[in-house]
Amino acid sequence: MKAVNSLEIPRFSGIRTFMRMPQAAEDDLTDISIVGVPFDSATSFRAGTRFGPAALREASLILKPYCPVLDVDILENLTIADYGDSPTIPGYTAESLDAIQKHLVPFYRKKTVPIVLGGDHCITLAELRAMYEAKKEPTALLHFDAHSDTIPEYFGKPYNHGSPFYHAINEGLIIPEKSIQIGIRGHLYDRHVLDYPKEKGMRIVLGDELHHRGCDEIIAEALSRVQGSPVFLTFDIDFLDAAFAPGTGTPEVEGFSTRQALYMLRKICTKINVIGMDLVEVLPDRDTSGITALAGATVIHAFLASFAWKKSNKLCQGYFR
Amino acid sequence: MKAVNSLEIPRFSGIRTFMRMPQAAEDDLTDISIVGVPFDSATSFRAGTRFGPAALREASLILKPYCPVLDVDILENLTIADYGDSPTIPGYTAESLDAIQKHLVPFYRKKTVPIVLGGDHCITLAELRAMYEAKKEPTALLHFDAHSDTIPEYFGKPYNHGSPFYHAINEGLIIPEKSIQIGIRGHLYDRHVLDYPKEKGMRIVLGDELHHRGCDEIIAEALSRVQGSPVFLTFDIDFLDAAFAPGTGTPEVEGFSTRQALYMLRKICTKINVIGMDLVEVLPDRDTSGITALAGATVIHAFLASFAWKKSNKLCQGYFR
Amino acid sequence: MKAVNSLEIPRFSGIRTFMRMPQAAEDDLTDISIVGVPFDSATSFRAGTRFGPAALREASLILKPYCPVLDVDILENLTIADYGDSPTIPGYTAESLDAIQKHLVPFYRKKTVPIVLGGDHCITLAELRAMYEAKKEPTALLHFDAHSDTIPEYFGKPYNHGSPFYHAINEGLIIPEKSIQIGIRGHLYDRHVLDYPKEKGMRIVLGDELHHRGCDEIIAEALSRVQGSPVFLTFDIDFLDAAFAPGTGTPEVEGFSTRQALYMLRKICTKINVIGMDLVEVLPDRDTSGITALAGATVIHAFLASFAWKKSNKLCQGYFR
Amino acid sequence: MKAVNSLEIPRFSGIRTFMRMPQAAEDDLTDISIVGVPFDSATSFRAGTRFGPAALREASLILKPYCPVLDVDILENLTIADYGDSPTIPGYTAESLDAIQKHLVPFYRKKTVPIVLGGDHCITLAELRAMYEAKKEPTALLHFDAHSDTIPEYFGKPYNHGSPFYHAINEGLIIPEKSIQIGIRGHLYDRHVLDYPKEKGMRIVLGDELHHRGCDEIIAEALSRVQGSPVFLTFDIDFLDAAFAPGTGTPEVEGFSTRQALYMLRKICTKINVIGMDLVEVLPDRDTSGITALAGATVIHAFLASFAWKKSNKLCQGYFR
Amino acid sequence: MKAVNSLEIPRFSGIRTFMRMPQAAEDDLTDISIVGVPFDSATSFRAGTRFGPAALREASLILKPYCPVLDVDILENLTIADYGDSPTIPGYTAESLDAIQKHLVPFYRKKTVPIVLGGDHCITLAELRAMYEAKKEPTALLHFDAHSDTIPEYFGKPYNHGSPFYHAINEGLIIPEKSIQIGIRGHLYDRHVLDYPKEKGMRIVLGDELHHRGCDEIIAEALSRVQGSPVFLTFDIDFLDAAFAPGTGTPEVEGFSTRQALYMLRKICTKINVIGMDLVEVLPDRDTSGITALAGATVIHAFLASFAWKKSNKLCQGYFR
Amino acid sequence: MKAVNSLEIPRFSGIRTFMRMPQAAEDDLTDISIVGVPFDSATSFRAGTRFGPAALREASLILKPYCPVLDVDILENLTIADYGDSPTIPGYTAESLDAIQKHLVPFYRKKTVPIVLGGDHCITLAELRAMYEAKKEPTALLHFDAHSDTIPEYFGKPYNHGSPFYHAINEGLIIPEKSIQIGIRGHLYDRHVLDYPKEKGMRIVLGDELHHRGCDEIIAEALSRVQGSPVFLTFDIDFLDAAFAPGTGTPEVEGFSTRQALYMLRKICTKINVIGMDLVEVLPDRDTSGITALAGATVIHAFLASFAWKKSNKLCQGYFR
Known about the structure:
The structure is a homohexamer of 321-residue chains.
Chain A: E1 32-37, H1 52-60, E2 66-67, E3 72-73, H2 74-77, E4 80-85, H3 93-109, E5 113-118, H4 123-135, E6 140-144, H5 164-170, E7 180-184, H6 195-200, E8 203-206, H7 207-213, H8 215-226, E9 230-236, H9 258-269, E10 273-280, H10 291-312
Parallel strand pairs in A: 1-4, 1-5, 5-10, 6-7, 6-9, 7-8, 9-10
Antiparallel strand pairs in A: 2-3
């Protein structure tokens, strides 16, 4: 099982898998398991993220294995394969969450870290349920987003991409006291929207706070929260400013650059124990020049490099520490 | 309640309503009631038609009241108002169908012809249920589409934009023997997909047949089927060729021009008793130059002109007869 | 003064002129004078045709000199140069018409046929005034369009892209009895909009009539009208169906294909005496895939080939006659 | 008069008004009056901002009432309604300025703050004239832009979107000594273009200066200039960098992020007395992914939150002060 | 090896292969072998068709196995697999032709019909060379295109997407007397461009001739030419009118609809012995709404259905004969 | 030879040259010579930069001569002309490099600074060869880019847009010890990719290092490297972050803003002796809103202003020093 060599076969060639990695099936075993979840029925505004997994695979063609910032070669340290997509049932949110959970449980049972290509953010609830079903314990949450997604219900119904972390707290899938949401800046329906997660112990770093205090302080705080526990990392692409990630359903201005995101990710993920990750809310039909999918794929690449760095127990060169 | 005069106030001005018609509320009464149904959760491929009603309103700004083909002025003969949109519940198809039905019943109870701006084609099931609930009898169906939408279930679930007419037949909402589907040309999952509607008496005119026999023969056949009954007219924009309507979720090539569509509509609708209409499956995010929404709005305009012509009992001038 | 050879220098190279023709200045003399008029302030709906001349030049790169339908080589029979653009004053319609007229008069005084790249249709009024100022006599009008553009005033003002031919008739610049408007199909503000031009003797061929009677009958009628007089040819790109020319400000469905347009043009223009031409209403910002500018450039090419054919007194080969 | 609740009716539903606010007519009274001015005839380069008001309304659907940065709920403190659009006369700049002024005077006579959705920047001249006609005194100007727009004439004519503030100074509508232009960075026709406004007392903060000195210093300077007087706030979207606001007619690189803009706005507008505001130069046809209209709508939201904060006399929480 | 069932797993899911067919490797054997050739270095105008194979795979997701026109189920009659892409060397045309040829020879040696997803038209030369190397005899050519692509050299070099059929004739790969080019309508560099292929015996049906004589006459002529020999079918997407296939490098107006193309293909391909096929010149970056890739994928589907029909020896139902 | 005055003739008018400068031919002499090189065959991923020169000319229309940051008027200090484009041979990389070199040598022999509008980055090799052929000595290299482009071969061939600086070092065209590459951040095929240039003495400033140390430190280092020698300045537009320059073939996130780029350029270029410059890798088909071409044209403008400033021996005003 080898990735394609892009110096021999041009990277615009061939059937698209993430980073041109080999394809695998459920009973294979690799350090990293790429799984798409093409689901967007839980979207409150613009739909279309069902094409997110395909866009992330396409954008990832351009990525290469060696990360000069961390001085680490991903493929020297990790085995990675693309396991295709989960089934879903468009228009049936609750049933789709069940189908996705069922599809993901075997991955969480194996010694692998699943990386899910979304899909709208509601799928994270299915991932966390699968993780819990497999591992029987809750996880710390490291969450980059413009929205806290903790609204109990929308339109009189429980499941929506604005609600997964309300349910995750409620169902005991995550440990709020060991969790942190970073970059939250979308306007709110009212001042009490964030009360529930805060009461449960969640740390919510507003975008304005991150802008004021800077990345380094928030990195420290995130580490102090999630270090020592298994961590689930969820990255909503709208953490990035609308200029850096226009192709998403509810973009928000006054956000963060890819530099800020990747810097924080590398600083945190080289020091923690991530057991699952997703990258959600890439909406290709609004991503007119493709930079959103590229940003999403590169976020995953930064996680892979950090994970490889940690595994290789390597001392970082140059400016990274 | 008057439309805005576009010779006085440029038509790019103001809050968008269909054809710049006045806004109205549920208890008003007009000959024609424009109602949006921004629902797309039942879509099997590309979502996004929830923005269809807004796109149709925007595109309709360009339309003017006098139709030179029929020599009839719509506004001299009809009162028209825009009643805004129905509620929906994204991600909950069955529940949305109920909400839409509930919203539409009052319109069918009034002496008005509702024209629904879709939305994916699944909403027609809610319209037909509302019509049936109000009028207590089934209707003839005049259906332009590339797909017959008569598949019993998708992904193990009953409601999908590929299934409304299966349910409409099954629930007795339409009279198959007085119904006709025109332009059906999408490839099929297998040869038996069309058996059920045919057995029930539905006439299905394949696209290939319409191309061979020509519009006039099919017009005659449609009239012979639906004349004499109240008729529900449903127009899926993908009846048009992908070149004429690229902005839809499941476009099909080898289709029909706007000329063919409008010609057939005028020839048929000036001679029948339409009690409800919809225009569905306009998907703005894929409608890069806006011609699909324009085609959709003009289809509605052609229906309005035909309806006005019939009401005015006018003998048509010139080339139309 | 020679065109660039695209078999030697790739046609995507170099500073853009129409069909890669040489540039010239006002006092040069060529059979054909290409002049841009980048003006769109008189637009009633979508502006942006001020970038029409540049888009037509860009699209024309792809055109080659030999027309196989007419078996004629344009460059063997005609000298052509690109004279750049006329001055205009954005936001000042009346003053711009004066500036354009002043710029064009010298061309009409020379033994050349000016071909104007528009711009919105209001510029044709300036062209006709320039033609009249130079030649002191009115002209027959051969007009392809979806709109007759004969509304006396818009928003209380005389000059608008919906009004040039009202003024042209009124000012005696064209001879209505020798003129014809073909393809008119836009809906109208009221039934009397077309009364004035008809009363003055203009022949208006509605789109519906052209669809019914076919191109050949209308070609014959056009020839019987305009043959024997000098003819001004004006081609609004929205004569074409919205599918064939999406990039225009007021597109109309139920229109005509490029095949129909070019067929009619060749049949008519090989037999008449054109003294001026324009191609108007190409709006690049709405022309997402560039086919509208390509259609516009090819319409001009068809005119050039017809003109070359006539000049060469050639008997046409093959299917054209 | 209530805004629509987006937790009940999805925000992609219904007839578009700004932030889903109720519609109102001229003789209603609300704290804030949203008025569109769909005018772009005074544009020197790319036209199309006549569709700006519609795009801003569409983009504003996503905005919610509570601002977490200022800890203030806009709708708890302010009544807001959408009053539709002003009339304009495309292609007649001077006459349009008169029509816009006439339309706006009643708003300035009422106890309301009009927020105008542009349109090109020339409309600000009409707004200032209306303000002056109603209030009989000039105002301080707080102006965010890439261009100072103080050129006396373009193409031999006085009114152009590059000239409004020359006329505003000249006509005594603003008090240059109490005014400030921030972010000016477009290249100039010559070094003397900025002499006139400077001689009259205007403070012009070049983009380079803002980059060097940082937002806080310029905020202080702006406050020292405009505090104590009634202030007119005009925000040209091209103050933002082209990456953050590509959809405008004369974008400029080396500009500012939405973070910088909103930070400055909140810091300044919570402390001053704004009597009129506009947001201009959003050009939807160039706004391929919609982030420009979103940025524009969010700028207005930041102003509304600041205004609500000031009205509520609230002490700001957290990082804002 | 089975295709994915789109009634169970939504067709927007999974790793993209043509029509969701199984993947295979060189030594597998299926009736039909899908092979991509992502090469565009030989393009004389717009490059980008290297992304054609990926776009065709994406567009093909929407296609289903049963063709109602021919009443045939492709998958009941044929085994099909996707064999991924050929290697290429961007910027080295001659060397790439060699690499492609080498990659394709094994397919032509097997009992399979390779269908190549292009790529620019120059790759057909490599295909024909591979076919000849494997089978040791030339083939009849059935060629749909707007351009005859028989120019000996461009820019002083032999290989260009305007030259493959010059070389194919010259190298004895095709039998001109048994070959036909249909739809040729691009303007020419000069009148002698088509002399060489005609002298060699090639039949060139100009677009104008096809428009005049109609599809049925040309179908008959094509059959009389290519029946009885093995046939290589090459379909350049620009055979279609620019309105039907905007996403290509050298689009041409005055072309043909998808209806005309598919009608001709079915009528011809059910009666001939095709040994190789390609679909070339789809350029995704210019295919703003995706209809070009859809048209291309459907052309291949029509060929597959015709091939299946022939293999099943089926008597066609309904309107096809 | 004068530029067009955009206060008299609107800048959207006329045949496009860079900054509306006069056109010139090879034997003219100006301080600055604008030359396009429309070549993209050496592209390893997305092609299309052959349309870069045209896009840069179009975008440059908006630029004006006076730079307020440097307080310098370009046209008061420099003569500039647009010399059109170099010949190229699409699909033949080595031969194209020769043709470009031959075209450029005469410019390097004249007392002019050629500014090349690219084109993919491989063309820089032809420029450096031409420079060397004319001047007989190597040059220092000042290189802004996301990629070092020092890979010896791709796909078994020497010339590719990822390889020019390997060859430039190897052929002795540049002096590595006096050269610097700034902003390099693309992931690498392996850790040894950068060994060769480093061993030869090249200074490679990774993007991460530039982010950490800031512009001022890197400016100082660049000056210490290249001052005192003739300098060739090459600017790959992907030095900019993908949000600021989406329209390029291999965009990279975590990059730099236009502010950072222009700030560095002005600080460096006012103090060094540049003898040649290029701006490469603008890919219009991916530049959906045109900001990439605008950024590219403005980079050239910043160089021109710096060059003019240096020539005028002017002391910089305001914040620049």
